[in-house]
């Protein structure tokens, strides 16, 4: 535990972090209108609405049913009336059906005491049903959780990696959950372990994580029969990619990893123990255009504008609003983008942070080469793509690009390297 | 609530602080100690060269702006180029030399090859080579810095020339040769060297010969940039601290050049093999300035850091060969130009991270 792990080459050091004043996490206000997207991202399949406009819904009631792979159920985050079922464009630019619910009536989940299930009496099938029924999602990727768990339970020698790493300067959601809800996280590990039957469980924390908390984790772990260890990682982006985690843990590849974040685990815990669907999410709201970063527990469907307002509004002029990771995340086109089950952060970034500059020709500074964790030659790939030599670019390794964005972050000439790679790879897939 | 302006909304949303133009401006700023030192040493003749060279750059940019309808003066690269061109010109050179050298550097090399990023040859070096080719005599006519005494016109030759043209019979060390021919020593040198010997070297059982301090602080005839080594080093520390240059290049150059200088020396009559004077070799010509400011130009050096080290070693070796056995006293400019030309070939053969078959098709 004394040695610090990390991937082998490349990456961006993110040692200097934005200060966050740790405080008990508050519940955000319920939104007046909740906008539910029935499709999480480009890979997911839309859920079908099971309610109609004008219908009254309870908090936590099923409003759309997922069918098949990459599709999950959607529940109403608030009690109210279904105002509209229409079309919306997701932040990553895909059209999806959406449901707008207006707040009305009384609470059931928030207002009442959570039901305490003795989950130990539940068997594998029950748990699996609950995970699917409650529409749980892996927060980092927006994949349905039941799918991941059932995938992993079919394989042997799985390692559950509890990924509390947030390798950018801003986000702290996972760290805060580890500090505040460690018992729930460990409980959820035990629930997941019952399904997956892992060889061992690894808690991944970074070198900034308060050392005093490690014995607390071990204490909570000791109350289960699980083999839990804690590994510390260097603060270097992009540590949270499966391949990078596998390298750092000394594994051959990532096929034996079941990566779950603390934020996913607390949702799992709440679903099994308190019977709560995935209608809430911990979200970090920060960036230079906000007064100070805040972590809120907010309902899915709340618009990011509401969240920002609740945190006191902008204190500076935002240059762009970014959802999740500032390296790979999406930019919000406006403030009406809703919180989804895979939103962990909303960053209002000022010009001071985005540091925009006009794109210039590559001057061969070599920064991208040093930053690429995959050992690719981003400047060369870019040159080949600009010359329309797509085959050659794939020969030079474009297919291995993980779109982490480290190269474009360091580029002196502000060449949108990763964006270019992504669009070519997407086109290539659809060919 | 303030609205979000429409921007180019692609990830990543945050960036490192470096930009190409910031790098060029910082680089130009780090040359200011050199500029100031040269003005202190030479006065107006130095000022006129700096200004003429800048005028050349502004003229070139104006012509480009008119012809191509794009103004790129603000990216700082032409200013940097013109400063570097001026560094290689002796003070007091007629104004048309710096003007046309930087015009040629920017128009003839940078713009013709397609603007910043596409030139395989370092524009500043191209401009300097152009000046050497057209005005060989004026480019080698040096002035005495103020504070140096003239003796029989000897002291208007650079230290390198003095060492090359030494025709006495007995001198195994460069500084002995200088004293034999009566090369002047400044009071500063005598004081500082005396102090160092008394307080430091005497305890170590060594003695520093007089003359090096003059070389380092610039009391020697030379071009604008090569005169004050201290100023060059001050600027290069900033370059390295801001991560603007690949450290491997100066490292490789200094290692190769020092080792070869140690082995083969300057060619004095009494000199032994492995008896060369590294300190003299590094401090006498324009080697250090070229090392930190010209060889490190990213556009014309290898993009990969490992190859950059190799490139540095190559320049160091060539620079020594040209200086020791070449036609002129200083060959660093040509050494860099030769290696610039070799960069694409070397990358095609050796670029790490690609298989040999891939290199052939993609590079
Ligand atoms: S986005 Fe692709 S090319 Fe760029 S650093 Fe990441 S893996 Fe390398
Ligand atoms: S970081 Fe940008 S400017 Fe530097 S070599 Fe890579 S692509 Fe070129």
Distance between the termini of chain B: 50 Å
Report the portion of residues of chain A in β strands: 15-25%
Task: Please estimate the helix content of chain A.
Answer: 25-40%
Reported by name, the CATH topology of the largest domain in chain A is Rossmann fold
Structural class based on helices, strands and sheet pairing of chain A: alpha/beta
Q: How many domains in all of chain A?
A: 4
Number of strands of chain A: 20
Major sheet description of chain A: 6 strands, mixed
Strand element count of chain B: 0
Keywords:
heterodimer; A: 431 residues; alpha/beta; Rossmann fold; OB fold (Dihydrolipoamide Acetyltransferase, E2P); Ubiquitin-like (UB roll); 4 domains; six-stranded mixed sheet; 14 helices; 20 strands; B: 363 residues; mainly alpha; 3 domains; 17 helices; 60% helix; disordered N terminus; binds iron/sulfur cluster
Description of the molecule:
The complex is a heterodimer of chains A (431) and B (363). Chain A contains 14 helices and 20 strands. With 431 residues, chain A is α/β, with parallel strands linked by helices. In chain A, the strands form five sheets. In chain A, strands 3-17-16-20-18-19 form a six-stranded mixed sheet. A five-stranded parallel sheet of chain A has the order 1-13-12-11-15, sandwiched between helices. A four-stranded antiparallel sheet of chain A has the order 4-10-9-6, with no helix packed on it. The longest helix of chain A has 15 residues, at 182-196. Chain A is globular. The mean pLDDT of chain A is 88. With 363 residues, chain B is mainly α. Chain B has helices at 20-30, 32-42, 44-68, 77-87, 96-111, 123-134, 159-164, 174-181, 187-204, 212-217, 229-241, 248-264, 278-284, 287-294, 305-325, 332-350, 356-362. In chain B, helix 2 crosses helix 3 (44-68) and helix 3 (44-68) packs antiparallel against helix 4. The radius of gyration of chain B is 22 Å and the shape is globular. Helices cover 60% and strands 0% of the residues of chain B. Chain B folds into three domains: 1-11 and 243-363, no CATH class; 19-142, no CATH class; 161-217, no CATH class. Chain B starts with 19 loop residues before the first helix and ends with a helix. Chains A and B meet through helix 8, strand 18, strand 19, helix 10 and helix 11 of A and helix 1 and helix 17 of B. The structure holds iron/sulfur cluster (SF4) (2 copies). One iron/sulfur cluster binds next to helix 10 and helix 11 of chain A. Residues 371-372, 374, 376, 378, 401-407, 417-418, 421 of chain A line the site of one iron/sulfur cluster.
């Amino acid at each position: 535990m004394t040695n610090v792990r990390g991937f082998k080459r490349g990456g961006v050091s993110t040692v200097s972090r934005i200060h966050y004043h740790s405080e008990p996490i508050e519940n955000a206000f319920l939104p007046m209108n909740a906008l539910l997207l029935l499709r999480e991202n480009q890979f997911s399949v839309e859920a079908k609405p099971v309610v109609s406009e004008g219908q009254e819904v309870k908090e936590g009631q099923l409003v759309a049913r997922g069918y098949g792979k990459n599709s999950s159920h959607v529940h109403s985050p608030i009690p109210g009336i279904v105002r509209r079922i229409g079309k919306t464009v997701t932040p990553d630019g895909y059209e999806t059906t959406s449901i707008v619910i207006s707040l009305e009536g009384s609470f059931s989940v928030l207002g009442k005491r959570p039901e305490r299930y003795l989950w130990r009496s539940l068997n594998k099938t029950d748990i699996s049903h609950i995970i699917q029924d409650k529409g749980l999602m892996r927060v980092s990727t927006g994949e349905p959780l039941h799918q991941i768990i059932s995938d992993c339970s079919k394989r042997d020698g799985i390692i559950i990696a509890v990924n509390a790493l947030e390798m950018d300067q801003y986000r702290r959601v996972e760290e805060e959950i580890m500090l505040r809800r460690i018992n729930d996280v460990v409980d959820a590990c035990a629930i997941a372990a019952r399904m997956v039957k892992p060889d061992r469980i690894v808690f991944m924390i970074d070198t900034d994580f308060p050392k005093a908390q490690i014995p607390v984790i071990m204490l909570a772990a000791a109350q289960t029969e699980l083999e839990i260890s804690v590994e510390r990682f260097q603060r270097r982006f992009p540590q949270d990619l499966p391949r990078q985690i596998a390298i750092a843990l000394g594994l051959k590849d990532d096929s034996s990893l079941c990566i779950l974040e603390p934020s996913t685990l607390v949702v799992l815990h709440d679903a099994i123990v308190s019977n709560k669907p995935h209608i809430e999410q911990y979200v970090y709201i920060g960036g230079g255009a906000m007064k100070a970063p805040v972590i809120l527990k907010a309902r899915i469907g709340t618009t990011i504008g509401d969240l920002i307002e609740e945190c006191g509004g902008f204190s500076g002029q935002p240059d762009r609003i970014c959802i999740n990771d500032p390296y790979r995340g999406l930019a919000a086109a406006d403030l009406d983008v809703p919180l989804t089950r895979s939103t962990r952060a909303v960053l209002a970034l000022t010009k001071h942070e985005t540091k925009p500059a006009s794109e210039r020709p590559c001057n061969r500074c070599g920064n991208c080469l040093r930053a690429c964790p995959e050992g690719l030659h981003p400047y060369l790939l870019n040159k080949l793509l600009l010359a329309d030599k797509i085959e050659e670019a794939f020969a030079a390794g474009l297919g291995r690009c993980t779109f982490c964005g480290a190269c474009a972050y360091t580029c002196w000439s502000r060449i949108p390297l990763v964006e270019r790679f992504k669009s070519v790879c997407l086109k290539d897939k659809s060919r | 609530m303030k609205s979000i302006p429409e921007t180019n909304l692609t990830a990543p949303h945050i960036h490192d602080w470096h930009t190409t133009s910031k790098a060029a401006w910082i680089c130009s700023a780090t040359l200011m100690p050199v500029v100031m030192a040269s003005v202190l040493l030479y006065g107006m003749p130095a000022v006129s060269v700096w200004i003429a060279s800048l005028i050349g750059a502004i003229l070139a940019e104006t012509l480009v702006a008119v012809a191509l309808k794009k103004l790129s003066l603000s990216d700082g690269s032409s200013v940097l180029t013109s400063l570097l061109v001026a560094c290689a010109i002796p003070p007091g050179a007629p104004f048309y030399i710096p003007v046309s050298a930087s015009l040629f550097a920017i128009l003839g090399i940078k713009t013709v090859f397609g603007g910043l990023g596409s030139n395989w040859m370092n524009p500043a070096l191209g401009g300097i080579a152009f000046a050497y080719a057209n005005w060989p005599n004026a480019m080698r006519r040096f002035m005495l810095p103020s504070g140096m005494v003239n003796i029989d016109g000897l002291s208007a030759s650079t230290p390198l020339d003095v060492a090359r043209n030494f025709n006495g019979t007995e001198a195994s060390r460069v500084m002995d040769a200088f004293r034999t021919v009566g090369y002047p020593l400044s009071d500063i040198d005598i004081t500082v060297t005396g102090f160092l010997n008394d307080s430091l070297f005497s305890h170590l059982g060594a003695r520093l010969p007089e003359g090096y301090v003059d070389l380092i602080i610039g009391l020697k005839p030379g071009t604008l940039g090569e005169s004050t080594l201290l100023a060059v080093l001050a600027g290069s520390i900033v370059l390295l601290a801001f991560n603007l240059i690949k450290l491997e290049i100066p490292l490789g150059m200094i290692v190769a050049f020092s080792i070869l200088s140690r082995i083969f020396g300057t060619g004095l009559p009494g000199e032994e093999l492995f008896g060369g004077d590294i300190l003299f070799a590094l401090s006498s010509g324009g080697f250090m300035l070229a090392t930190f400011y010209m060889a490190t130009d990213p556009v014309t050096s290898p993009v990969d850091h490992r190859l950059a080290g190799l490139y540095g070693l190559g320049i160091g070796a060539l620079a020594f060969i040209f200086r020791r056995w070449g036609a002129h006293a200083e060959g660093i400019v040509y050494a860099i130009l030769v290696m610039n030309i070799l960069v694409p070939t070397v990358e095609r053969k050796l670029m790490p991270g690609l298989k040999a078959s891939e290199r052939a098709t993609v590079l």
